[in-house]
User: Which sequence fits this backbone?
């Protein structure tokens, strides 16, 4: 089975660009990891283990959602869905947020409350396995950026491509999230607020990227040809 290198490239770009959002939303959790911030080895090993768990969750979800896309999405729809998703994000930026507000105090929100409860228990532990599971559970917490990436996994209409998309999306977020653990208290609330204000610009970038991707312009990593019979550079997966 072949994996399009352009899928990997676009996933990494999305993760790298979106990592600013990760600092704003997941920064407090990363800064609160049960590691010794006075010990460089503890911070480095803790950051690696935590982020490995997070990326593991993303990859597993990508496999599932890619399989779902393989069942319900025809190849000829991939371009239209990518453009449609980009337009929805632009509408979200243009219209008042009250039209997109929904309450999480519903049956759908209960699993996330349970996740947070388990996270709280893990933060009381000091062993390495707790850091891995904190990362794993963190990967399943509500996050618009992750949902956006998962939608791209569905559009890929392949379990392998979906999994690889989320793997490299996670790797794209890794440098910034790893640096967050290393920086410790230097990343204060004021700085996170400034970063959070950049999120609309980030969403605009993502929307444009999705629309360009759906236009099949043949631009490597930005607008590859989706759902066609053209030959692309591929990475062989055996």
Assistant:
């Amino acid at each position: 089975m072949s994996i399009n290198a352009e899928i990997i490239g676009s996933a990494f770009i999305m993760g790298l660009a979106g990592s600013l959002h990760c600092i704003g939303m997941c920064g407090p959790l990363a800064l609160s990891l049960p590691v010794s911030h006075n010990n460089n080895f503890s911070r480095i090993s803790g950051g690696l283990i935590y982020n490995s768990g997070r990326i593991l969750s993303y990859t597993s979800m990508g496999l599932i959602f890619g399989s779902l896309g393989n069942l319900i999405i025809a190849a000829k729809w991939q371009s239209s869905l990518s453009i449609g998703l980009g337009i929805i994000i632009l509408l979200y930026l243009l219209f008042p947020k009250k039209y997109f507000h929904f309450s999480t105090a519903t049956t759908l929100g209960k699993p996330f409350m349970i996740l947070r409860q388990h996270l709280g228990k893990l933060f009381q532990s000091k062993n390495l396995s707790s850091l891995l599971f904190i990362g794993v559970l963190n990967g399943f917490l509500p996050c618009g950026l992750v949902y956006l990436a998962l939608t791209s996994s569905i559009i890929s209409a392949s379990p392998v491509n979906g999994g690889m998309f989320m793997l490299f999306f996670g790797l794209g977020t890794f440098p910034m999230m790893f640096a967050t653990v290393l920086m410790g208290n230097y990343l204060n609330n004021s700085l996170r607020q400034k970063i959070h204000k950049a999120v609309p610009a980030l969403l605009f970038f993502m929307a444009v990227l999705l629309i360009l991707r759906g236009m099949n312009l043949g631009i490597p990593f930005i607008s590859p040809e989706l759902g066609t019979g053209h030959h692309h550079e591929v990475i062989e997966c055996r």
Notes: The mean pLDDT is 77. Strands lie at 2-4, 234-236. The longest strand covers residues 2-4.
